[in-house]
Design brief:
By secondary structure, this protein is an alpha/beta fold. The protein is 42% helix and 12% strand. Helix 5 (95-104) links the parallel strand 3 and strand 4.
Length: 331
């Protein structure tokens, strides 16, 4: 089958990017093609993106006192960009919104919080962010907050706090995806035991292929964690971050990234693998050869075809699996 045709007819759903920070900082606009960073709307169209989770990440200097207002600034940035680019970008709060965006040739933006710091330990704040359109929340970044310990605190063995338990239950009730990407192992176990809905790891790879010895946090998932997410019905978004692809980040390539897809398929199954680029979350000299920016996404489809995946399997990896979970959780 023709790889480009398959890619263009598929729903391509990327589980994580940090681009809103660059837009908020005034480095670029979503609607304008840029040579900076990894993505903008024109390049996303070229790369065939259908849906994108836009993370709202609060830098550490704003935590805790200004976490909520900084997150609101990021949400506002998305709304401002959507208003300025109404012909290209729309907010998605349901699977039907994503399917409608595909039919209309638009990109569906899903709003997500990367860390629960903005909630300040208050479920009322969660409900207000839900009303603003947020449909994905990573319980932690790398450090401890009111909900749980992040991976940088794994030494403590800490999992979900009492607030974290109530948060998971309220997210299940509201219909908001739970993201365990930066969560310490004990927290991952707690979430998988507690959540009634499928969870996601929006941007993580296989620990068996890369132990992340070259980066400060061991965020790649063990086979046991991969199996647990699969048993829960969730999805792992394979990330393009060079240090998570190979222990020598200078050797990160599309092919090595696809090795992680292969491994997760073997361990978790074809229904539990997706894409979570983390575009604009890594910079400088870091580069994943063959996945230098969002325009290179069709290379994933070609690479999977070359590896013998069937078209219907490729459609699941490109976005069908994330769409299934989003439909099950958010409606």
């Amino acid at each position: 089958m023709d790889a480009d045709k398959l890619h263009r007819e598929s729903i391509v759903f990327d589980g994580h990017c940090d681009t809103l920070l660059s837009v908020l900082d005034g480095q670029r606009r979503l609607g304008e093609r840029s040579e900076e960073g990894h993505l903008d709307l024109p390049r996303m169209k070229e790369g065939g993106i259908t849906a994108q989770i836009f993370a709202c990440f609060v830098r550490r200097q704003f935590v805790p006192a200004q976490a909520t207002i900084q997150t609101l600034h990021l949400v506002d940035t998305f709304y401002e960009e959507m208003a300025a680019n109404a012909g290209m970008l729309t907010l998605a709060t349901s699977a039907a919104d994503i399917e409608r965006a595909k039919a209309e040739g638009k990109i569906a933006g899903v709003l997500g919080l990367e860390g629960a710091e903005a909630l300040a330990g208050d479920l009322g704040a969660l409900r207000m962010f839900y009303r603003l359109g947020v449909r994905n929340l990573g319980l932690t970044w790398n450090f401890r907050n009111e909900a749980a310990d992040g991976v940088a605190e794994a030494r403590t063995g800490g999992g979900l706090t009492e607030f974290g338990v109530r948060l998971v239950k309220e997210m299940n009730r509201l219909g908001m995806m739970i993201d365990i990407a930066h969560l310490a192992p004990a927290g991952v176990r707690d979430v998988l035991a507690l959540s009634d809905a499928p969870v996601i790891a929006s941007h993580a790879n296989a620990h068996a292929l890369c132990s992340c010895a070259s980066c400060p946090h061991r965020r790649n998932l063990t086979d046991e964690q991969l199996e647990g997410i699969a048993a829960n019905g969730g999805v792992i978004g394979v990330t393009f971050v060079p240090a998570f692809v190979t222990d020598d980040p200078n050797q990160a390539t599309l092919e090595r990234t696809l090795d992680h897809v292969d491994h997760i398929v073997r361990v978790a199954g074809i229904d539990h693998v997706g894409l979570g680029s983390d575009f604009d979350g890594f910079f400088g000299k870091e580069a994943n050869v063959g996945l230098e920016d969002v325009t290179r996404m069709p290379g994933i489809t070609a690479g999977l075809l070359d590896r013998g995946y069937k078209p219907e399997e490729i459609k699941k990896i490109l976005g069908g699996n994330f769409l299934r979970v989003f439909r099950q959780v958010a409606g």
